[in-house]
Design goal:
It is built from 14 helices and five strands. By secondary structure, it is mainly α. The chain has a three-stranded mixed sheet. α1 (2-18) packs antiparallel against α2 (23-51), α2 crosses α9 and α7 (127-141) packs across α9 (179-205). The radius of gyration is 20 Å and the shape is globular. The two termini are 30 Å apart.
């Protein structure tokens, strides 16, 4: 069903792109490419399920399907899988930040930064930078760099595979007169998909009562239920995002496929104990940038009056079994 949605919107977008002879047809074409982007969001989350080996029986089939879907999303599946599973094993752990997540500093760490590094962190956490530049950096630039993965690894091979697809697509497109229009259209689709994806990922872990604890106090179950939000969406939108809005359930039982998350949540009454967010509360999440170890809450950048915390924790940590 998802592939049908993707192919239908893609064919519609290409057809409208080929007939862009006046400004109104350009508007229709851009609208169609935005629909392609929305379908890519669901494709991406399904390849995300493959990363957890939750969609099909057997690791091999999950990896094959995940790799193919990742190529359509310009995402090297094996590399993304490694960083995402690290995110699951360390989410909410103050001593194991920096892998597959949005970098979050404590108030004390921010206070200790130089003026230059404070400015960089402000830009990094700016919502317009995240929403507008984030997709370009992540999907168009960062995922194209082979050296982000170890040489000879499966992760680097997945980057080469995705890059080969992208180069082949570009060469094929430029064989036609309207090739540049197609390339621009697909970039628009990826921008839309990436922006939606980054907003979803941001609010799933960046809210006022977000769970962050040092390794000695960290609990995987509490990190899932208290550090992952339940974004309340209409059922049609929940289908479009493949249930990823039920993020607390997903972090608690990542081996449950997306189409069973709601059933699991209701059966175990996890909807009553979740950190519920409404769509209208999303902007308020983007105003939170630092974690206060004193109040154990996310706070705005202006809240630098907090009592200094311990020295900046290192990275690493134990990889936990699911």
């Amino acid at each position: 069903m998802t592939l049908v949605l993707y192919l239908v919107t893609l064919v519609l977008a290409i057809a409208l792109t080929l007939s862009t002879d006046h400004w109104l047809s350009v508007v229709w074409a851009l609208g169609a490419w935005m629909l392609v982007g929305i379908s890519i969001v669901r494709l991406f989350i399904i390849q995300h399920d493959c990363a957890h080996c939750s969609l099909f029986p057997g690791r091999r089939l999950n990896r094959v399907i995940g790799t193919l879907l990742g190529v359509l999303c310009l995402t090297p599946h094996a590399y993304w899988r490694r960083t995402h599973l690290a995110h699951h094993r360390t989410s909410g752990n103050l001593d194991s930040r920096g892998m597959g997540d949005i970098h979050t500093m404590t108030v004390a760490e921010y206070q200790a930064l130089s003026v230059k590094h404070k400015l960089f962190y402000r830009l990094y956490r700016n919502p317009w930078v995240i929403i507008l530049l984030g997709p370009i950096w992540q999907f168009v630039i960062h995922f194209r760099l082979p050296w982000i993965a170890p040489a000879g690894s499966r992760e680097r091979a997945s980057i080469y595979l995705t890059n080969t697809f992208l180069v082949t697509l570009l060469l094929a497109a430029f064989q036609f007169e309207s090739g540049i229009k197609f390339v621009i259209g697909y970039l628009v689709a990826m921008q839309v998909a990436g922006s939606i994806g980054l907003v979803l990922f941001y609010v799933q872990h960046q809210f006022e009562s977000a769970y962050w604890r040092p390794r000695s106090e960290w609990s995987r179950k509490e990190a899932a239920l208290c550090g992952s939000s339940h974004l309340v969406l209409p059922r049609c939108l929940e289908w479009l995002v493949a249930g990823i809005n039920l993020h607390h359930v997903h972090h608690l039982v990542p081996w449950v496929p997306n189409y069973r998350l709601r059933q699991f949540m209701l059966h175990h009454c996890l909807d009553q104990t979740s950190i519920r967010l409404l769509p209208c509360e999303i902007p308020s999440c983007f105003r939170l940038h630092l974690y206060s170890e004193t109040s154990q809450q996310m706070v705005p950048l202006k809240a630098t009056h907090d009592i200094p915390g311990p020295p900046a924790p290192g990275r690493g940590g134990t990889w936990l079994n699911r």
